[in-house]
Amino acid sequence: MTGPLVVALALSVAQQPPLDSLVHATLEAHRRPFAVASGGLTGPGGEWLLERAGAARFTLIGESHLNAETPAFTTALLRGLRPRGYSAYVTETGPESTRLFVDALRGGGFDAGEAMMADLPFSIAFFDQREELRTVVDALEMGYDIWGVDQEFIGSPRLLLRRLVAIAPNEGARAVAQAMLDRAMEGFQLFLADGDQSAAFMVTATGEDLHALASAFAGAGDEADRILAQLRASHGVYHAYFEGRYYDNNATRVDLIRRNLLAHMERAGESPLSDRRALIKAGSIHAGRGRTPMRVFDIGALAAELAFASGLESFHVNVLTTESVDAAGALRSWREQSPELAPFMDLTPETGPVVFDLRPLRALLSDRGGKSEALEELQDIALRFDAMVMYPRFHRADAITPMPGG
Known about the structure:
Number of helices: 17
Order of helices and strands: HHEEEHEHEHHEHHHHHHEHHEEEHEHHEE
Radius of gyration: 23 Å
Distance between the termini: 65 Å
Oligomer: single chain
Structural class: alpha/beta
Number of strands: 13
Shape: globular
Largest sheet: 8 strands, mixed
């Protein structure tokens, strides 16, 4: 192309507003405030979230963990989605430890869960935060099934081996499980003393140990088989990490998460293409559609494809903040470490949370070249998530048992 056409195109490009300004204007036009109330989500943003999530087979909440606001948001969303046919709450926790924990909650409610986490701290991820525990208790009271899908947590062998001791089919099996439980308890005491995880049973156990345990419980029944299978799989995930095989660690873990979700459906007598509606809460890296920044297809990708194949859709929500308050009351801004979030931070009021519809950003950022690195990352967020929930401030969750040294 030459001559007047080239000049006209150049003038057209030059006259377009800067991309940063277009992004700001687009987000501002698609921003809705909401509030979390005892009855659920309220305000324009609450209505929009419930409308979008209610039409989806899966809603996924991507979170940053260990804050008080996200569990409260999750509880409100669960409450609003129950009348819309949602019946499962899927958490980033081990399947068998979660099952045992839920059994305790059914028998004694919040107090039983708190006592269990105080007795066996770090046996289940996240549920040792009182706000997370309250969400699980509330979900059970609403009638939700609770499905854990992650690897069993590093402190879980104390809980799982204790259960094997209780259901052992004979004295020989009980003695094998008890010996390993004693090792797990001793190793965990070393962790509590100095925070060193290297003595944990998940790290020190060998393949021969797990084989001996499986041999002792051969034919002991479905529950024992499930516990042993999750211990073996989780042992593999942790060993890859501690051996420095980080891609293998992540890829193995993600495969396990996806298989565990499908296993829950199978045990519920459902096809993966059933219309069972579930809310899935996991770390942000897991919850988006497509390939994650870790270069694997995670539970968010599986949920999106299952929803599509069953003629429905998935709804992916990222929940973040502009700044967080630690246990000592000190503020930490997220702006420097996450510059791609700057457009959201600039538009998040101090008065309360807001939700941004990310879909209009997709064409805007895909059709324009010359993007900064931050806008490239923002484009990735908009492709993987449908909505961004932003809080002006996160507060540290209330831990039942604080981390050693913290």
